[in-house]
Design a protein that fits this description.
Helices cover about 75% and strands about 0% of the residues. The model has no long low-confidence stretch (mean pLDDT about 85).
């Protein structure tokens, strides 16, 4: 297994742990708590699937879009670009959190 896959999996696990902690540490549970938990969990799962999919399957995803309907895609995307976008998607919540802490919000 490549080192980038292991690192991305560790980062994803940290995000899941932080998500679980954020919901279990909340002492003010209202009537919509379960609904918010469900929506948040689904959102995190979809986001991690897209991010990890781009990182782990970047070469395959880049090559797989040739010949799309209406000819909007004329050549394959380089695998490194798809992987880079996966890393950007994976790092985005941490970057937003750090900038919000720096600004004091």
């Amino acid at each position: 297994m490549e080192i980038s896959k292991i690192i991305s999996l560790v980062i994803a696990a940290v995000y899941v742990i932080v998500f679980i902690y954020a919901f279990t540490a909340d002492e003010e549970r209202d009537a919509r708590w379960e609904e918010n938990l469900f929506r948040g969990a689904i959102s995190v799962i979809i986001w991690l699937m897209v991010s990890l999919g781009c990182i782990w399957l970047g070469d395959e995803l880049g090559e797989g879009l040739i010949g799309a309907k209406f000819g909007l895609i004329s050549s394959s995307s380089p695998g490194w670009a798809v992987k880079l976008m996966g890393w950007v998607l994976l790092a985005l919540p941490a970057i937003v959190f750090i900038f919000s802490r720096i600004r004091g919000n």
